């Protein structure tokens, strides 16, 4: 019997749903497939090992080498970050109900190049000035896909970022940026407080992709970043808007891309044009320190011109020059206060190490942050929850209280006292409603709560950390 030796080509760079020359037509391997081996005229179907997502796959059939472990690690990080559902209404809990199949679909489509992100859900959250901040919420599956790209892209980009860029970076934080700004305000009498108008909504896609290509030539990373930039937005009324610029706040990869854009648009340019000017940047919030008013004015004009080259613009009303007024700087100037990352910098009375009072230019919790915290406390409706105990309130609210204290009590913590004094009054009103012998007797309820605080100071974070306990009476 005549035997022929047939040579089979590997199809490493072809999609599984393309017709291979000299082969068979393969459907998408989102259904189980088998590896085919041809020996002479005999075709044998050899099952591969069972992969971790419970599927059998075609060996070396994907055009992009994305491992299932990358997708699994991305899912764990997305789950840890939690977050709301996207346009499909699927929460993380819903996604986990069919976890193997859902993760397999993400992996299969990403590695075959057929993944297209669904629209992001547009929501608006209130800002401190009464306006609304737009957010774009991707679906859970899309957040996992973005995390896969971020995990590969971040180690390539992170080492190149400027040391004074603090936003969304490992080992950096907002409170560190505030501390650095505090020290530099002591050494430099002038500050240029910058505000980029609609930054996330106006990032130029062409310039963004140019910046990404400076750090990677990975085809699938570039392809998916471009697709996310162009991903449409779905509004609450169901209407869909396509985008030609911007990246939605709320996406997993958006903060990294925004940092990269401003790294080239601002950070590196500052190093070339104004190497002596120090600054702190947290995403699009920027503070520059100047030695004179004239230097600050020149810097403002230069930055405005630079941002126009990058197709951005400064907010004309929110961008301002500030004089850091204190005991040794007594000049009159219209602007002597600015907000940065939830703190207000302004002249404040402080005590030196020797015990003497002086006026320094210091940060403390801003009025906007204080109002936001008080509004959230009121939303708890503590006085109406008479079915709860103090221990219940401790479990419910202490994580929030610790978070606020850990951030806002770093500098000038006495500014927080009046906020937590209001919380003590709320708990006092709850006691007056819950216990009959305290109804209409505020002093008795206050003293009772004070005695509880003496016996159990660890019950609430502000009692334990700040010592903000009610009076226990005589």
Task: Report what the structure shows.
- The chain has helices spanning about 70-80, 90-95, 100-110, 140-155, 175-185, 205-215, 220-230, 255-275, 295-310, 365-380, 390-410, 415-435, 440-455, 460-465; strands spanning about 35-40, 40-45, 120-125, 130-135, 190-195, 235, 240, 280, 285-290, 320-325, 340, 345-350, 355-365.
- By secondary structure, the protein is α+β, with helices and mostly antiparallel strands.
- Helix 3 (about 100-110) crosses helix 4 (about 140-155).
- The longest helix is centred in the middle third of the chain and has 20 residues, at about 255-275.
- It is flat.
- The N and C termini lie far apart (about 110 Å).
- The relative contact order is 0.08.
- Mean pLDDT is about 85; it is low at about 1-50.
